[in-house]
Each structure stands twice: as C-alpha cells, then as structure tokens.
Amino acid sequence: MNSLLNWLDDRVGYRHLMREALDEPIPGGARWRYVWGSTLVFAFFLQVVTGVMLWFSYSPSTRTAWESVYFIQHEMTLGWLIRAVHHFAAQAMIVLLVLHLLQVVVDGAYRAPREVNFWLGLVLMQIIMGLGLTGYLLPWDQKGYYATQVATEIMGATPLVGPYVQKLAQGGAEYGHHTLTRFFALHAGVLPALLIAFLGLHIYVFRRHAIHVKLPKRRPDETFWPDQVLKDSVACLIVFAVVLALAIWKGAELTAPANPAEQYEAARPEWYYLFLFRFLKFEWVSQLGEATGLGEAFGAVLIPGILMGVLILMPLIGRWKIGHRFNVAYLFVVMIGAMTLTGVALYEDWWSPSPEGVAFREAVEQAHIDGDRTVELAQSPSGIPPAGAIELLQNDPLTQGPKIFRVYCADCHQPVAMAGEFRAPPQAPELAALDPREEVSFGTREWMRSILTDFRGHMAALKNISAEHGAKAERIEAAEGILDGDMAYWSEENGPILADEANRESFDALIEFLVAQSGRFKTDADLVAKGRQIYLDGQLANGEIAACADCHNLHVLDEDEPLAEPDYGPTMTNYGGADWLRSFLEAPEDHYTNNNAMPAFGNQLSEREMEMLVRWMAGDYYQAGGDAAPGQAGSEAE
Hints:
The protein is mainly α. It folds into two domains: 22-271, Cytochrome Bc1 Complex, Chain C (Up-down Bundle), CATH 1.20.810.10; 395-617, no CATH class. It is built from 25 helices and two strands. The radius of gyration is 34 Å and the shape is elongated.
C-alpha cells in the first residue's frame, strides 16, 4: 500500500494537495461557530447529488413535467426520498445561509481585508435564492405554477427594464412551456455552474486571508485537521439527519397539475420569500408606489434594493467601531422584521378566520385532493394519456362533477357542510355533501327511506320557494303541490307501517329493490327478489301498504317486459342511475307533469358538463380498489 501511495504521490502530488486542504491554520483553535460555511457546502453537495438523480427522470415540458415528477415520486425506486432530500436540503441552505451571514457580521469577518470575500458571499446568497425560485416551478403543479407567475410579474414591475426581464424569464409574452424550459435551464445548468464558480472564488479568497478571529484568542492556534474537521463533520451529520427526518416525515408535496384555466387562491412563494409577499400587501406600500410613480416596483424592487445596498456597503461602514455596531444592529432589525412578516403571513394563511385565510386553506386542501386524485387516476389501468395528466382531471367526473354542481345546483340543493355560504335558504333537499365529494346522498338507501317514511320532512326545503326569495308564481304553486300532493299523503299513511319493527325485513327488502334499479350499488339478490314482490302488491310481514306499482311505472334493468305500467307517478325505471338523472335534468317536466318545481338544465349545461355531473352523481367514475375502470359504474358508493 505504501508503494502504491508513494507512486500516486509522485505522479499527482496528492500529499501536497492534502496538506494544502487540511493544514489550514485556525487561530485560536477549532470552534463550533466556524461550521456554517462547511454545512452550506455540504447542503449544496446534497443538492447536486440528488439533483443529478432527479435529472435522470425529469422531463421539462408542460405535458411531461408533472408526469415525470409523478414517476419519480411514485414509481422510481426511492424516488420519493431523493426528491424529498433535494427539497429539504434547499430549505436547509436558506437557514444555514442566514446563520452564516449572522456569524460573519457579528464577528466582523466582513471587514478589511475580507471585503471581497463578503461580497462574493452576497453573490452566492442571490444565486441560492435564485435556485429556490427556479426550482419551485419545475413540478408544474398548481402551487408552483401560480407562485412563479406572481414572481415573474414582480420582475415586470422593475422600472425601464422590467417588461424585458419578464419576457426574457418567461420565454416570450405568454407564461407557459418556454417559461418552464428556461427555469429548468437556469435551475439545473446556469445557476449551479455560477454557484460552483463563485464558491471556488469564495473559498480561494477565504483561504488567502484565513479565518477571522476575535481577539483575545482563547486557545492556542491549531490546524483545520483534526479538530475543526471533526466539528464540521458533526455539524454536517446533524444537517443531514434533520433533512432526512423531514424527508421521511413530511416528504415533498405534489399538488394537482398546473391548470391555467382554474384560478388558484393559494398562490404563495416559498416561505423564505413570504416576508416580501406580506410587505407588498401593506396599503401604505401601494400608496407610496402610486405617489412615487413606481407602482409595485416601489415595494418589490426599490425597498429590497435599498436594504440589499446597505448589506453591500457593510465592509465600508464597518471600518469604524460605531459602523460595525450599526451593521450588527441593522442586520438583526432586518432579520427580526423579515421573521415577523413571515410569521404574520403564515398566521393569515393558516390560522386567520378572515375570508382570505379561509379561501387560502380551502384552495390548498383542494389542490391536495386533486393531486391525490390525479395520482389515483394515473395508477389506474388506463394510466396517463398522451395529452398529459391534466386531461385525467378534466375528464374525471369525481373532480368536475362537484364543481359543476356547485355552480348550477348548490344554491337550491345546499349541502349541510356549506351552511352559511348562501344568502338565501335551501329550496330543495340535499343531494350531495361535496366535502367529501364521494358522498352523494341522492338515490341511496337513506334517501329512499326518508322519502317513504317522511316525505314532507324530506322535501321541507321546498317551503323556501316563495315570493320573498324571488320565486315565480308557477314555481311556488308547484312547490306547494309537491308538499301537499299524493306522495306526501301516501307517506303519512304508509310510513308508520313501514317503520314498524315487525316490518323491518320487509322494508329493507323494498328499499333494496328500489336502489337496485339505479345499478349504482351492490345489492343483496334475495332481498331484491322480496322487495320486487312488495313493490307489486304491498304485502308486508305485518300488514300492507298501497303498492308502489299502482302509481309508478317501472321497467326493471335487463328484463324484456315492464314490471308495472301505470301512467300516474314518475317512472322508477333506473331511478337514481345515470340515464334517469340525465333525462330528469334535461326535462324534469316530463317526469313530474303535475307539480314540477325543478328548472330544466338541458339548455344550460353543455354536453360535457351534463356528462360529468350525471356520472359523478351516479358514481360512474374510477375508484381505486373498486371493480370499475374510468368511464364505468363504480362499486358500492355508500
């Protein structure tokens, strides 16, 4: 081994290089306060290693970016861990950067002859923050898309050159594919290369002037090896342990694919830019921007520029003792101000009861729900289509149906969970909860039981169809007719008989037969057969009821002949299923010829909207672990 090492040293001179690296003098001995620079380099090393691993599978285009991140997160071996370490190492770099800056300023390590090294450090700080900004967009999800769009708009606010800088960053006038490719080129190529170059200069100048030590020295002089190496190694190990713990505990999130057609109310920059985001929300900042003619640039460019300018001038200001004290006080004030603004922004978003805070939290929750749903659909047998993952959500009834319902149906059929969101009271029974959106109550066993045993209570919201709430006379009359119609009297007379404990099995059988007509639910074949007979003759275990077949025609699914053909009540054929729902929504007057208080939606909804709404309410969408594939009826929906 010695012969081999001697041969290697003779050829490349590695022993001289090792001495140069490890024999660096440490005046006053090794100290923990000197570890921050090494931990920053280590965090950057983590970024490079994990970044290259991610690069192997990442595809920078608007149709493949989210999809490739999905592959990394859910398909690639340990991809989730690599991505999470990369994500949290980036967060760690910001924290370590602040601690290193504080240590340098407090110790006075920025003063002559180390001014250039300090300025190089400030350049490195800007590059690191640029890496965070450009990396935010790369998953091409709702969160990154809208947050980065806000950032590019702030660039555009810069006086004179702003529009040109914004256009250059976006890759044109539009925010889209070229924005993503340019941000990727910056994040994976230009900025890391600049960081390595300036880091080399930073270390070179640092080694030229050695570590700055505050006098008097507390310990004898030492060299970098072994004590300072040990301290740096322990600090780096702690940083790695924290990053790894966060990666396993929290992981890197992936929200819904970016959708320019849907506004995202939770557009926020990363936490280390939140102070600037909150600062720009102050009314006085906007007023001063208007007064100075700078507009948004006053708070987004001028004020941060002045603060940064003072940092740049610190080596000159700190030549005198009072100037050094000013620098230390200034840095602490700026840091406390930034942390305070960050805390205010976090409170307003995550805990404030204000409408903006509520909207933020709802948007974040919805983005995560849609993100989880996209992953679920991507893992279905059909996978991700060529048009990209966004198409999965756009053609998913579970995603689109509730949105359409909220626009067209929720005012009348108000979900209990949304109580307080409407000016007028509900005017029809609740059909679905919307949160969770899988819970559609229409046509379920509970729905049927309520109608048969307490029809007036089930339809009580129809009382709110009144002139006071802007209803027309015809609709008011129809609502009154429903509440005082034959079905209400049938429920009053027959409901108590059905609710009799002695008729529990008979009632269950009738309900099972009725819900079986929709094809939405798994049902008990024996109960369905018993319920079929009760539907025809009304005979129960204890007494009898007026038979449903006397009023409601019914053609049982998969049977050639109708089961009952009266022409009085609305049809029960496929009641609660997709065909019945579509027919009813398009022309409800064809179902309820006597009393119809339901407006027709045949001309209000597009064909696609109608399909999404009907399929959602009928449970006709892909459910992981169920029997259905996309576009086919789901399994048990209750």
